[in-house]
Amino acid sequence: MIWFWIFTLYSFLGFLLEVLFARLTGSRPDRKCLMVLPLCPVYGLGACGILLLPAAVRARPLALFLLGGLTATATEYGAALWYERALHVSFWDYRGLPGSVQGRICLPFSLAWGLLALLLVYRIHPLLASALASIPVPVSLMAMATLLCDFLFSSLALRATGDRKVLRPLF
């Protein structure tokens, strides 16, 4: 159950990061998450990938920066591909940014993911890991069912409409 909570927590923190980034850059605060829950799954998947890196990588800041950034970038590319092919939507387009690959990934964000990997492994996760591990199983199962329903509903709505605007929160 701990990996479910790791995914969920960092998906939520990713949502908050997206909102903050939109405010700081003056860009549109497009919803890049699920229909109801404020979760950006690409961040949760990226965090899981980074935390699954070998201990020898996580113990070396330069290796973590490089391989953590690469892991998150690969996750971002895979998520973009899945969104486009399975759900017929695109949540971001990095064309025009340095090092862009088909608009799905780019060098500036890959470097940002490397920095976020350092922050995740050395600061954030050590503070939160024990709290996540102590969440009771019944609470985890209810939360998992809720997330799965929202994911399914959001995916079906996106696939049916091909329009990201369908993800406006229901409340």
Structure characteristics:
171 residues, globular, mainly alpha, 6 helices
Q: How does this structure look, described?
A:
The protein is mainly α and 171 residues long. It has one domain. It has six helices and no strands. It has helices at residues 2-25, 41-51, 55-58, 61-87, 107-133, 137-161. Helix 1 (2-25) crosses helix 2 (41-51) and helix 4 (61-87) packs across helix 5 (107-133). The longest helix is centred in the middle third of the chain and has 27 residues, at 61-87. The mean pLDDT is 93.
Q: Helix and strand string, N-terminal first?
A: HHHHHH
Outline type: globular
The level of helicity is 55-70%
Mean pLDDT: 93
Poorly predicted regions are none
- Extended strand count: 0
Summarize the SSE layout with pairings.
Layout: H1 2-25, H2 41-51, H3 55-58, H4 61-87, H5 107-133, H6 137-161
In short:
The chain is an all-alpha fold. 69% of the residues lie in helices and 0% in strands.
